[in-house]
Design goal:
The chain is an alpha+beta fold. Helices cover 17% and strands 39% of the residues. The chain is built from 1 helix and 8 strands, in the order αββββββββ. It is globular and about 40 Å long.
Length: 114
């Protein structure tokens, strides 16, 4: 009987510790997420945390992904309209500006709005 009580108390103590343990660290949102004003036609582009992005009708929607680098730079690939347009961008160190280049070599910038 004493063994059963000891096991029960150990189980209760373990459950209490598990309940007090901090929740798994929440993943920080990627610094790219937000609203950006493109230098091209002053388009407003929303980059969302689900890996998608949306712009005005002329631009459409697409998906984005981080590109691994060996430096501290944060680089991304933007695929518009199912890959019809592909841009590579670099986020500034302060997270407020983007420098980009399309596949055809066209260069552009963007500034964070929110």
């Amino acid at each position: 009987m004493k063994a059963l009580v000891a096991i029960a108390l150990s189980f209760v103590a373990f459950c209490s510790l598990a309940a007090d343990a901090p929740a798994a660290k929440e993943k920080k949102p990627d610094p790219l997420i937000g609203r950006w004003r493109w230098s091209v036609h002053n388009y407003l582009i929303d980059i969302l945390d689900d890996g998608t992005m949306k712009g005005p009708r002329e631009v459409g929607a697409g998906v984005w992904k981080a590109i691994p680098t060996t430096t501290v730079e944060r680089k991304y690939q933007l695929n518009w309209r199912g890959g019809d347009g592909v841009d590579t961008i670099t986020l500034s160190a302060d997270g407020k500006k983007l420098n980009g280049k399309a596949l055809d070599g066209f260069k552009f910038t963007a500034a964070r709005v929110e």
